[in-house]
Amino acid sequence: MTSQAAGRGTPRRVAVIGAGYVGLPTAATLASFGHRVVLAERDPVRLSTLRAGRVPIVEAGLEELVSRGVAAGALSFTESAVTAVDGAEFVFLCVPTPQSADGSADLSYVEGTAKEIASHLQQGAIVVNKSTVPVGSATMVEQVVGRPDISVVSNPEFLREGTAVHDSLNPDRIVVGADNPQAAARVGELFASTSAPLIVTDATTSETIKYASNAFLATKLSFVNALAGLCEEVGADARDVLLGLGYDKRIGFEFLRPGPGWGGSCLPKDTRALLHIASEAGYDFSLLAGAIASNDEQLARVVSKVELACGGSVVGCTVAAWGLTFKANTDDRRYSPSLQVVHRLVEQGATVQAYDPTVGAADDDTDPPEDLRGLVLRGDPYEAAAGARALVVLTEWEEFRWLDFSRLLAVMAEPSVVDARNLLDPAALRRMGFRYTGIGRR
Ligand code: UGA
Predict the structure, then answer these.
(1) Contacts from 289-292 at CB under 8 Å and sequence distance 24+?
(2) N or C: the chain end with fewer CB closer than 10 Å?
(3) What is the pLDDT of residues 245-278, one digit of tens each?
(4) What is the pTM of this model?
């Protein structure tokens, strides 16, 4: 069932459990819609950051939205999920659902939180699954809570990191699913201040919509990256080919940028989880398996481009890498294709000097985070490029476009650039004497 949400809804008492990339924007957005929100975060460092008026993640506009909520008395923080749910009519579960070894989603945080709050929920409260959870999880949470007066509603999140505030305030759609349609409709009303279409459905369908959305985006990107590879072979320009595709309204321009492969904490995890769900159900989702395999090929293609730029092998070569996060405008490096490329280069014998605007230079007194071990971390892009045989641009940070390329030319050992995001201007670089390789681009 689809309807158009309209007008400002009645203010409600809401608890949000988990102040991560989903929970924090969700809590701040619900507070900005006029609801009274208590956000529970059990990590003491995160909690004290929030209490000090700052946010623990890089996310445009989030600090302002959180501050406005706090100043209006609509948003407050606690370390205890039990305290947060006291008096709450709606309880949003925004806890992590990491990937298990077999590709399925690990539901231990969801289950643990549901157990913890079960006996503290107020009569008739609605528990909302906001974390990305497998088909059947609403029923699982209902069973764990074990109270006939409590309904569980699936309300998947579609926000992107980096634009989380914009996406939460201006969603393309709101999806709510429950086996109790009244409960689903009540959750939909929380978002009445947005003009987004509201899809009210059953829990299984709602849970499937979330995975299907991310799997579709991943498949689209795998197609785009593979197409860019084909363009290189036949001598076509992928950027123009994709322009020609994008004007077709059925295809659209979004998610048409070739890159080093898709990553982040969602697309890789959710595609593998959907594949796992399919195989458990006895369904051969070979198309999705192909999209995942194709993404790995894309990482390998970028590594090969760097090898070629270094004369055929990276053994003993210094390679500069710009960008380590999985995309620009976030500090998130989970399942980052950029990191996967640099670690493969290190494995093959390169010394990688890396720079990312969200990562500081190496510091003699502190060990680097585990995912950055083996890299030489530099504090600016020129230092990273000093003495390098090749530079690979891996994350599309805007600042990389506007650097002093004559200075870059002067510091590099060889003027070779592999632009895995098609971010730079090949003609301008070639005029200056650089050798340039993009993705699907002459
Ligand atoms: C993704 C979805 O886009 C959101 O709708 C969803 O809510 C979220 O996962 C989630 O499940 O929580 P996000 O992980 O923030 O959001 O990242 P995306 O913006 O989707 O980018 C994913 C990857 O695709 C990145 O590595 C990015 O660099 C790459 N990408 C994206 C491209 O290579 N080209 C493009 O044109 C777009």
Answers:
(1) 290/222, 291/215, 291/218, 291/219, 291/222, 291/223, 292/218, 292/222, 292/268
(2) N
(3) 999 999 999 999 999 999 999 999 999 999 999 9
(4) 0.93
